[in-house]
Write a structure and sequence with these properties.
Blueprint: H1 2-20, H2 44-52, H3 56-93, H4 98-125, H5 128-131, H6 134-142
Length: 160
């Protein structure tokens, strides 16, 4: 019973993320910000650079870090999508989804590792005055940025 509740929560979070849309590192997001205002059409890289006030050199280094992380994350992202589909299928057929849930948790942990490594590399590039905004940038822009869900982006936040 507890497993089904966990699975339902995971699927709901995935569906919410997919509903919000969005893209990966270079994607832009449409929609509103809750106040009827359109979101900017900046790429994730541009948003990160603006929030952290990166120099051109830092922005280029961050682009390389994110590109490398996205390349590492691509196969995992596909596996995560398949894992979510397997869990949904298990729920629809009444099959025990414990094994699929465990596999998905492992994949998500690996993805978190890729994101954390990229964040650590970016943080190391920052000057002390830029580091004060780094956690907010991770929470708002980087967490889940490499997970694709039904054509949309991640949008997953730490702790979800």
């Amino acid at each position: 019973m507890v497993g089904r509740v966990v699975v339902a929560a995971l699927l709901t979070a995935g569906l919410v993320a997919a509903q919000r849309g969005g893209g990966g590192m270079g994607g832009s997001r449409g929609g509103d910000m809750g106040m009827g205002m359109p979101r900017s059409q900046q790429t994730k890289l541009d948003q990160i650079a603006d929030k952290l006030k990166l120099s051109k050199e830092q922005k280029a280094q961050v682009a390389d870090i994110l590109s490398s992380a996205a390349e590492s994350a691509a196969p995992l992202s596909q596996q995560i999508g398949k894992g979510r589909g397997a869990i949904a299928s298990d729920l629809a057929t009444g099959t025990d989804s414990t094994g699929d849930c465990n596999k998905l948790q492992d994949l998500l942990a690996q993805m978190d590792g890729i994101e954390a490594t990229a964040y650590g590399k970016i943080y190391a590039l920052l000057k002390p005055n830029q580091q004060k905004n780094a956690e907010q940038v991770f929470d708002e822009l980087m967490a889940g940025m490499f997970i694709r869900s039904g054509g949309g982006g991640g949008g997953r936040r730490r702790g979800q």
